[in-house]
Amino acid sequence: MATEPIDLEVAGTCTDAAGSAIGMPQLCDAWFGNQIFWLLVTLVVIYFILSRIALPRIAAILAERQGTITNNIAAAEDLKAKALEAEAAYDQALADARAEAGRIIDAAKAEMKADLDVAIKKADAEIAERTAEGEKAIAEIREGALAAVKDVAKDTAKELIVALGGTADARTVTAAVNARMKG
Amino acid sequence: MADEAHSAAATTGADMAHGADAAHGADGGLVFHPMDQFLVKPLFGHAGDPVFWYTPTNVTLWLGLAVLAIFAIMVLTTSRRAVIPSRGQSVAELAYGFIYKMVEDVTGKDGVKYFPYIMTLFMFIVVANFLGLLPTAFTPTSHIAVTALLAMAVFLAVTILGFVLHGFKFLGLFWVSAAPLPLRPILAVIEIISYFVRPVSHSIRLAGNMMAGHAVIKVFAAFAAVTAIAPISIAAIAAIYGLEVLVSFIQAYVFTILTCVYLKDALHPAH
């Protein structure tokens, strides 16, 4: 009972009759104990909420996210390596295909050249044969022509001798013609 | 400014039947009660009832709301433990990362084990500051008793930790070995004074900033009763309110980073 009037008196030094502040309420020492007590309670509660529940949980979330990111980066590195490998394989296959194509082209060229050589040889042989035939024919014709010229010369000589009133001695005419033809 | 308010309250407040924060009197004159928002009142019972240390007051109410808000921000939002965070979870993670990085950057790797304590300080101050910006709210961090307790807790913890970790070598904090020998005693005196002023500046900086902003808003609010200057007054309230949002965060940040700096001194006292 003794404390109550004192407290009322102290409260009275901080507020006036209308309940408004006198000076700064911050400096009213009658209220310090109340504020300090409740602040201590509050801080302890906040500390336990944070240190027991919130902070470990958030730390776990962040660690999990970091782990996920690290894993994903590792997976991405893996995939990148695989892609590089695939590219190398592709390049290798391309080079192989080019080499193969070159070889096939060379083989085809060689084959074609061989065929061509055979054909050219055959054609050359045929040409040679035809040339020989032609030459032979020309020789025959020439010979034929010479014989014909001889005959014509003999006949003409005989006819000329007859027309000139002589008698044609066949052997003499032939000899003369032959002599002239040689000359 | 507090004195002005006091005199205004003393001259016109006495004959007023209602103790409203800012209301115009029967004669149309302006009435300023910018400090009434800082009054500690019992939650239950009559306005004039005595306030004992255990009495549930508006301080209790707003501290409790701060606890609930912190629970909502840090625990409820993270309940899904999503790898891809929701907005709320992002806020919680952002707050965690912000303070964790601050502790790590300022105090070094060995300061990280004090991170929960510093996180408690930061979350309490920032949430109490922001809750105090709600209209008709009570701002616990505008009270010197509250901030002084926080600052003294930091000061005592850091000092004790320094002596526990380093013994008397902790006093090397005051002995600037980089300075010329004749200067060292003088510097030691300055260092010791500055060391003991730390909790004072640490606490008054926060309480002063919060109190000043809230009081200025109330002063402008009282001017809004005069029709001619009401638009200016309302614009000023909006502007100061924006500033206070900024100050609320910055002061929480400043208090926390100074705590980290003091903690660094305890962990690494050598200059």
From TrEMBL, chain A:
The listed locations are: Cell membrane; Endomembrane system
Q: Which GO terms describe its cellular component?
A: endomembrane system; plasma membrane; proton-transporting ATP synthase complex
Q: What are this entry's molecular-function GO terms?
A: hydrolase activity; proton-transporting ATP synthase activity, rotational mechanism; proton-transporting ATPase activity, rotational mechanism
Keywords for this entry?
Answer: ATP synthesis, Cell membrane, CF(0), Hydrogen ion transport, Hydrolase, Ion transport, Membrane, Transmembrane, Transmembrane helix, Transport
Reading the lineage from the top rank, the first entry is: Bacteria
Q: Which family does it belong to?
A: Belongs to the ATPase B chain family.
Instruction: Quote the gene name from the UniProt entry.
Output: atpF
Which organism was this protein described from?
A: Pseudosulfitobacter pseudonitzschiae
NCBIfam families given for it? PRK13454.1
Q: What does this protein do?
A: Component of the F(0) channel, it forms part of the peripheral stalk, linking F(1) to F(0). The b'-subunit is a diverged and duplicated form of b found in plants and photosynthetic bacteria. F(1)F(0) ATP synthase produces ATP from ADP in the presence of a proton or sodium gradient. F-type ATPases consist of two structural domains, F(1) containing the extramembraneous catalytic core and F(0) containing the membrane proton channel, linked together by a central stalk and a peripheral stalk. During catalysis, ATP synthesis in the catalytic domain of F(1) is coupled via a rotary mechanism of the central stalk subunits to proton translocation.
The transmembrane residues are 36-55
**Protein name in the entry:** ATP synthase subunit b
The record gives the membrane topology as:
Single-pass membrane protein
Please name the taxonomic classification of the source.
Answer: Bacteria, Pseudomonadati, Pseudomonadota, Alphaproteobacteria, Rhodobacterales
Calcium as a keyword of this entry, yes or no, is no
First-listed, main subcellular location of the protein, grouped into a coarse class:
membrane
Which InterPro entries has this protein been placed in?
Answer: ATP_synth_b/b'su_bac/chlpt, ATP_synthase_B_chain
Q: How does it assemble?
A: F-type ATPases have 2 components, F(1) - the catalytic core - and F(0) - the membrane proton channel. F(1) has five subunits: alpha(3), beta(3), gamma(1), delta(1), epsilon(1). F(0) has three main subunits: a(1), b(2) and c(10-14). The alpha and beta chains form an alternating ring which encloses part of the gamma chain. F(1) is attached to F(0) by a central stalk formed by the gamma and epsilon chains, while a peripheral stalk is formed by the delta and b chains.
From TrEMBL, chain B:
InterPro entries for the chain: ATP_synth_F0_asu (IPR000568), ATP_synth_F0_asu_AS (IPR023011), ATP_synth_F0_asu_bact/mt (IPR045083), F0_ATP_A_sf (IPR035908)
Q: Where in the cell is it found?
A: Cell membrane; Membrane
Keyword set includes Ion transport = yes
What Pfam families does this protein map onto?
Answer: ATP-synt_A
Please give an example of a GO cellular component term from this record.
proton-transporting ATP synthase complex
Per UniProt, the keywords (alphabetical) are: ATP synthesis, Cell membrane, CF(0), Hydrogen ion transport, Ion transport, Membrane, Transmembrane, Transmembrane helix, Transport
Q: What is its main location?
A: membrane
Q: Does the keyword Methyltransferase apply?
A: no
Instruction: Tell me the membrane topology, using the record's own terms.
Output: Multi-pass membrane protein
GO terms of molecular function: proton-transporting ATP synthase activity, rotational mechanism
The transmembrane segments are: 59-77, 114-138, 144-165, 172-197, 217-238, 245-264
Q: What's this protein's family per the entry?
A: Belongs to the ATPase A chain family.
Q: Which HAMAP family match?
A: ATP_synth_a_bact (MF_01393)
Free-text function comment from the UniProt entry: Key component of the proton channel; it plays a direct role in the translocation of protons across the membrane.
Known NCBIfam families for this protein? Answer: ATP_synt_6_or_A, PRK05815.2-4
Q: Which protein is depicted? A: ATP synthase subunit a
Its lineage opens with: Bacteria, Pseudomonadati, Pseudomonadota, Alphaproteobacteria, Rhodobacterales
Gene name tied to this protein = atpB
